[in-house]
Amino acid sequence: MRHALALARAVLYTTSPNPRVGCVIVRDGRVIGEGATQPPGGPHAEVMALRAAAAAGETVAGATVYVTLEPCSHHGRTPPCVDALVAAAPARVVVAMGDPNPRVNGAGYARLRAAGIEVCTGVGEAEALELNAGFVARMSRGTPWAWMKMAASLDGRSALHNGISQWITGDAARADGHHWRARADLVLTGMGTVTKDDPLLNVRAVETARPPRKAVVDATLSISPQARLFDGTEVLIFTAAPAPGRAAALADRNARVIALPDARGERVDLAAMMRWLGQNEFNEVHVEAGAGLSGALLTAGCIDELLVYLAPVLLGDAAGMVRLPLLEHLEAARRYVFTDMTRVGADVRLRATSDAHWQQLLASVRGVGQAGAQP
Amino acid sequence: MRHALALARAVLYTTSPNPRVGCVIVRDGRVIGEGATQPPGGPHAEVMALRAAAAAGETVAGATVYVTLEPCSHHGRTPPCVDALVAAAPARVVVAMGDPNPRVNGAGYARLRAAGIEVCTGVGEAEALELNAGFVARMSRGTPWAWMKMAASLDGRSALHNGISQWITGDAARADGHHWRARADLVLTGMGTVTKDDPLLNVRAVETARPPRKAVVDATLSISPQARLFDGTEVLIFTAAPAPGRAAALADRNARVIALPDARGERVDLAAMMRWLGQNEFNEVHVEAGAGLSGALLTAGCIDELLVYLAPVLLGDAAGMVRLPLLEHLEAARRYVFTDMTRVGADVRLRATSDAHWQQLLASVRGVGQAGAQP
Hints:
2 copies of one chain form a homodimer. With 375 residues, chain A is α/β, with parallel strands linked by helices. The first copy, chain A, is 29% helix and 24% strand. Chain A has 2 domains: 1-131, Cytidine Deaminase, domain 2; 142-355, Dihydrofolate Reductase, subunit A (3-Layer(aba) Sandwich), CATH 3.40.430.10. Chain A has 12 helices and 18 strands. In chain A, helix 6 crosses helix 12. The first copy, chain A, is globular. Chain A starts with a helix and ends in a 9-residue tail after the last helix. The interface between A and B is large, with 48 and 48 residues. Strand 14 of chain A pairs antiparallel with strand 16 of chain B.
């Protein structure tokens, strides 16, 4: 399973909106076939591994198949993987986690078992879920998995009092940040950052054939068509002010304006924005914004994970990382769970996840089939 | 050497103002004696190890001695360890680092070599120095090694806007903080903290036979004799305002008032305070203060190391960790090097060291004898 997870990790930048899946077929302690999900429209991991075994003249009958996600049981862009597996007749299929996609949701397990194949689940579950948190979030709750990337000094300052913020963290941290952009389906920022930094918002420092889309939260639709992030690729602009004239001018820059005003019509309804993204097959959102939008997304419960780069430097009185409503008690603070800490060049990267959000994903992959999926 | 370092680490709380030293004697791949420095006045590590070998009926002649610090060559509270080593006649002495004590400073090496004993140095040097940074700092630059303990949210906030700060980090982080208090010779705070929290400032959660001294920076000598930190043990009060009447009242509480005013007579000369501490055999200072004194100590260059506990929580607009002069450029920021990151309960502990200060210590233990120490 460790090898299958590594195969899935190797396609981190290419399978979306499909999940990243790896598959390894083993007989007599020997790998006889392996594969990973191909870009959308291409074969899934199981089919790739079965083809590799066939090409090597190996027979899969009686073998053990390790796969990082429940095999699909429905006709999507490709035929169901369970059909191919049943035809190949392995003795056993070991799966890391269930697929909460309503069109699978335990039916893959059921079809394999009905064919007399032993099914073993939950092996390497946490790692498999980490690789596909976005896919599972979209399938189980209808919104993408969103992380917020922040860079700050050890005392939590993201800019000097005069606005200087480039660069608090070092080259290695910035390159690592681009890995996270590349993995995501969308890179999201706010108008404060566009105005202040005029960012390109693209992926550099990492090779990717499938760059993420870009998006800006721009309540008043005031972004300049000359902003550097308009590079010909489609840019989503979430706004509270439809303003058809300006939207038309932006359309020339390949901007797609989506009006999602809140009840007062003043701000973008951020929760509605996340639902829109889920409906439009965005699995993972990389937020890289200033203290204002960052705080608003946190307050709206739209952030699942924090990705914080800290530089070994103290800045004292300077701009904070997030703007949040004043708290009267520490118990009211938003709590996370540290999931990883890594040195990145001279800096450290801390990941902290909302435990409630993570547990909900875990429950959804463990609960497949329990709400009565039909084989 | 790893075993000798572990022996030294085991006496972390007891040897001060002497260095923590471990010694292991090996013959034919077998440990024939080991020991660590005893509390002041007691035998040093080498003598403990030689005694253990003798007690076990082992002969040290021809053996290899591993010791984490250059053996002393002078009569201090105990006779010179080199004399005992020369008498035991090992073939080889392997040493982690030189002793910059002006009364040793290479003379230990020279005496061993003159007796025909092979001396090998620098094995496990960084770990040995980490164990005795305070001793080496005092010997080489005349001031203690000082670390600043801070606890904050992931976005660098150490209290809410209303002053609430207990407890941002968890029980495990607080217990770990007491380990650092226990290791130090002095726990230092400022009047802001005394007024706000009335701390005990003692060591809890860790057993220690040698609790650190307590000290308060109190420029106006305004501390109340009823403050909870007065528990009968001697408390140092550094002030800029001699005020003999108040000093006498405080003396009843076993407070020792030390007047070290700066040039304007308004604040405590913090650099002079560190020199005073060095002259009075304080090796390590644990600073646990508010943003004001913390910032002033940093600005005065008195801090060698940051010990930062971060909780996986965001607080937004709230009190910062340190008050520092406004910076106009990031290049002007005080930079450190991350040396350790560890999970402590739900929190993380980051250690960051001033690289310039550390390199100066390293140079001093490597340069022993080069300025012409006499055997």
